[in-house]
Amino acid sequence: MRQKRVAGNWKMNGDQAQNAALLHAIAEQAEKTTAALLVCPPFPYLLQAVAALQTTGVEIGAQDCSAYQEGAYTGEVSARMLADLGVQWVLIGHSERRHYHGEDNALLVEKGRRAVEAGLKPILCVGETLAEREQGLTQQVVAAQIAPFLEHFTLQELASFCIAYEPVWAIGTGLTATPEEAQAVHAAIRAQLAEVDASWAEQVGVLYGGSVKADNAASLFSMPDIDGGLIGGASLDAGQFLAIANAAE
Ligand SMILES: O=C[C@H](O)COP(=O)(O)O
């Protein structure tokens, strides 16, 4: 049986004082939840999170990593540096990176490569825009975002991946895919993964993201192919985040 996982993507929010309070509350409650938890703070606060959560079992993710290994790439943060800090996970291809920074599949495969080389576990984010959904292209778009990874990574490498399905129109909008809409896409994702290896596909965590809150999490997480969530706004509120985590049990 796949373990439920709830990841908090803080995006570009927080400061040391706010983070301290949030991390303290998560640390206090973490052992009461059976879901695996991870938080993804902005780069400057990763060490603060590593230090605050080190004895709690809550893992740490970064929101991005460089496609380059090291060297003269001003402003970039390498996967190896993240691993060196004690980070275990990294988001690859969040829709905000795809949209605001023009990240395409070729670049994201390189980022995934650097992550795997550094021993980080990638969370590959995929999802369609509203226009694509309205044109009936959802599964086609999602499959095209996943396919390059299935092509460029071995099964052994893919074993460390999670997928996060995040319909772009549901991110930060208060609109959520219904559990049935989300389940349909998750099932299609798992079917695509099963074309590579059926037993791997049964084990991969496929998270849902997009306006998940404490009051809609349980119905989403009860669907057979939804293995937890990637939470944005609600992960900045310890009470909401932990309530979502508890809904994953
Ligand atoms: O990474 C998280 C997603 O973008 C969801 O964000 P949201 O929960 O604020 O809609």
UniProtKB/TrEMBL annotation:
Traced from the root, the source organism's taxonomic lineage reads:
Bacteria, Pseudomonadati, Pseudomonadota, Gammaproteobacteria, Oceanospirillales
**Catalytic residues?**
H94 (electrophile), E166 (proton acceptor)
The record lists the catalysed reaction(s) as: D-glyceraldehyde 3-phosphate = dihydroxyacetone phosphate
Domain of life, per lineage:
Bacteria
Keyword Cytoplasm on entry:
yes
Family classification: Belongs to the triosephosphate isomerase family.
User: What is the protein's known function?
Assistant: Involved in the gluconeogenesis. Catalyzes stereospecifically the conversion of dihydroxyacetone phosphate (DHAP) to D-glyceraldehyde-3-phosphate (G3P).
Q: Where in the cell is it found?
A: Cytoplasm
Q: What class of enzyme is it?
A: isomerase
Q: In which pathway does it act?
A: Carbohydrate degradation; glycolysis; D-glyceraldehyde 3-phosphate from glycerone phosphate: step 1/1; Carbohydrate metabolism; erythritol degradation; Carbohydrate biosynthesis; gluconeogenesis
> What does the entry list as the binding residues for substrate?
N9, W10, K11, G172, S211, G232, G233
Protein name stated in the entry: Triosephosphate isomerase
Cite the CDD domains for this sequence: TIM
InterPro entries recorded: Aldolase_TIM, TIM_sf, TrioseP_Isoase_bac/euk, Triosephosphate_isomerase, Triosephosphate_isomerase_AS
Entry keywords, A to Z? Cytoplasm, Gluconeogenesis, Glycolysis, Isomerase
Record-level Gene Ontology MF annotations: triose-phosphate isomerase activity
* EC number assigned by the record: 5.3.1.1
On assembly, the entry states: Homodimer.
Transmembrane portions of the chain: none
Q: Does the keyword Cell membrane apply?
A: no
